[in-house]
């Protein structure tokens, strides 16, 4: 089983503190189920890669795939994203793999999304959106 370092664990606490309580609670429930499942737990360790994001950070992200290199990662400008509210109405999830790398595997995210949606019906998954699929993204 992949464990977080102390610094990583501290960042998780800070990120979860920046999101709405019902979303943080749904994540906590989904994470407990993931870590308690002997099959899922060996695939990787879910973690919150982002909670609240400032308007400036959102504007910077918006440049990705536009004026900056790389793929487009968001269609929201600063202030338009649910990440830009405080507390944040959105969080993003990634996985720490047994080899130490970070993964945004659609398969892992889809498995985790099932647990998130089961934990709280108010949680919506970006992977269910028509058109642009934002699979790391969960919001209330
Ligand atoms: Zn997001």
Spell out the key features of this protein.
2 domains, 5 strands, 14% strand, 4 helices, five-stranded antiparallel beta sheet, 140 residues, binds zinc ion, alpha+beta, Muramoyl-pentapeptide Carboxypeptidase, domain 2
Q: Explain this structure to me?
A:
There is one protein chain. This protein is of the alpha+beta class and 140 residues long. The protein has 2 domains: 100 residues, Muramoyl-pentapeptide Carboxypeptidase, domain 2, CATH 3.30.1380; 34 residues, no CATH class. Strands 1, 2, 3, 4 and 5 form a 5-stranded antiparallel sheet that branches. A hairpin with a 5-residue loop joins strand 2 and strand 3. Helix 2 crosses helix 4. Zinc ion binds next to strand 2.
Summarize the structure.
The protein has 140 residues and is of the alpha+beta class. The protein has helices at 6-17, 21-36, 55-62, 106-119; strands at residues 45-50, 90-96, 102-103, 124-125, 137-139. The protein contains four helices and five strands.
Radius of gyration: 15 Å
Strand content: 5-15%
Number of strands: 5
Alpha plus pi helix count: 4
What is the CATH level 1 assignment of the largest domain?
A: Alpha Beta
Distance between the termini: 30 Å
> Order of helices and strands, N to C?
HHEHEEHEE
Major sheet: 5 strands, antiparallel
Tell me the overall shape: globular
The assigned CATH architecture of the largest domain is 2-Layer Sandwich
CATH topology of the largest domain: Muramoyl-pentapeptide Carboxypeptidase, domain 2
User: Fraction of residues in helices?
Assistant: 25-40%
